[in-house]
Design a protein that fits this description.
Length: about 290
């Protein structure tokens, strides 16, 4: 099974009444890959991951996890999940909850390793119901990896975490993937996806609209971006400008020739705070799902 893809989706379709949540989706995720699944709300990300977990049955198409049906992969302990809407037992200390759940797995990781990887040592005596949002996320992560799964499905895993906790979390993710585990995560932190994912899949309206590395996704936008503060005007008419849109109280120009654009732009005395940058993943994302 070492050469078997972690996830194989073929012609996957899921409808809710007249709404097509997932539309003829094909996707292969190799074992050991860290994949970021991006898309606006309603793109079909959650429905797709729920079908991979066996929580939702597709209307047509097939789902295989390490060559098995999702229910079989879950039964064998191959999948661990960290879902945003996953509730936790509230009136119990963290240490007691970990111990109880540890006893339910056939081949769990050592409890000490779970505590270390999820950074839980400082909150073991805390009541679960009293945890902050970031602490609760770390606990959910500990529970997700406890069964030593080969595939981790993570939904907005770093929501509520501070910058330091997020950095430690992704260091752990990299260690897990290096050890052969596969990680699929959905996030609205696009910088995290760009920095930590081996591969990015962008979904919109139930379909894949882009699939590649962060660099490949950003190349879709092309050229350079010029950001500046200035009055409302027909900035798209400037030479070298491909597109113009307002952003954060200023303007963002996508340029095929930023040198030509700057020469024309800087003749306007009302223009200030000019910045030239390479396209960001956020820029490509907005263009793809517009």
């Amino acid at each position: 099974m070492t050469n078997t893809a972690a996830i194989t989706l073929r012609g996957l379709v899921k409808r809710y009444g007249t709404l097509v949540a997932v539309d003829a989706l094909d996707l292969d995720v190799p074992a050991g890959q860290i994949l970021a699944l991006l898309g606006p709300n309603g793109a079909g990300k959650s429905t797709t991951t729920e079908m991979v977990l066996g929580l939702v049955k597709p209307d047509s198409g097939s789902v295989h996890v390490f060559g098995q049906a999702p229910s079989e992969a879950v039964r064998r302990g191959h999948i661990g999940a960290m879902l945003q809407n996953g509730s936790l037992l509230a009136d119990i200390p963290v240490k007691a909850l970990l111990g109880m759940m540890h006893g339910l797995h056939a081949h769990p990781l050592p409890l000490g390793e779970v505590i270390e990887r999820a950074d839980l040592a400082s909150i073991l005596r805390s009541n679960v119901g009293k945890l902050s949002g970031g602490q609760a996320q770390r606990l959910r992560f500990g529970l997700a990896i406890m069964g030593d799964p080969r595939l981790l499905i993570l939904d907005e895993p770093t929501v509520g975490m501070d910058v330091d906790a997020r950095r430690r979390f992704w260091t752990t993710m990299d260690d897990l993937a290096t050890g052969g585990r596969t990680v699929v995560f959905a996030t609205h932190y696009l910088d995290e996806a760009d920095e930590f994912a081996d591969r990015i899949v962008v979904m919109n309206a139930g379909r894949i609209v882009a699939d590649g590395t962060g660099s490949q996704i950003k190349a879709i936008v092309g050229g350079r971006h010029v950001r500046f503060a200035g009055p409302e005007a027909d900035w798209a008419a400037l030479p070298g400008v491909v597109a113009a849109r307002p952003e954060g109280g200023g303007w963002l120009l996508t340029c095929s020739d930023s040198d030509q654009t700057l020469r024309a732009l800087l003749t306007n005395p009302a223009v200030r705070d000019v910045e030239v940058t390479a396209p960001r993943l956020e820029d490509a994302f907005l263009e793809l799902v517009a």
